[in-house]
Design a protein that fits this description.
The protein contains eight helices and no strands. The protein has helices at residues 3-16, 24-32, 36-49, 54-66, 70-83, 88-101, 104-118, 123-138.
């Protein structure tokens, strides 16, 4: 198999191309490391050049929500959903935002969309359902 050579040449190409636009994978790495501000910086650039990128809009919304910027987060989740109404991540995260905010009716709407898109046992449905139940317990 030629997998190793391919990876090495991809890395070499990446090193030559220092001015390449940041990509969603690089932003995801920052999110995984809980560097939400770093992710916001990258994703803001990505969304500026690719406003229709549902994944980038979703991750920008997520990073903003994690830094307490709920209003802005909602804007980017809605942009992701405008491009892809069944986007699993955006539906889950927007639903979680609504649950955290105590807007359970809107959170349940997102859960319905998820359950229709991926069933009741997919990770996104399960996670959102837990967030709604946690919010209900607080009421």
């Amino acid at each position: 198999s030629n997998g190793g050579n391919f990876a090495a040449s991809a890395i070499a190409a990446g090193l030559d191309d220092q001015v390449a636009a940041p990509d969603v994978a690089a932003a995801q790495k920052k999110i995984d490391a809980k560097d939400y501000n770093g992710a916001i910086a990258l994703l803001t650039q990505i969304v500026a050049s690719k406003p229709d990128d549902a994944d980038a809009n979703n991750l920008l919304g997520y990073s903003l929500r994690k830094t307490g910027k709920w209003q802005e987060a909602e804007t980017f989740y809605l942009k992701a959903l405008a491009k892809d109404a069944k986007h699993l991540g955006a539906n889950e995260y927007l639903g979680e935002l609504y649950a955290e905010r105590g807007d359970l009716a809107k959170a349940r709407e997102r859960l319905k969309v998820l359950e229709a898109a991926c069933g009741t046992t997919c990770e996104q449905s399960v996670d959102l359902k837990k967030a709604i139940e946690a919010a209900e317990a607080k009421k």
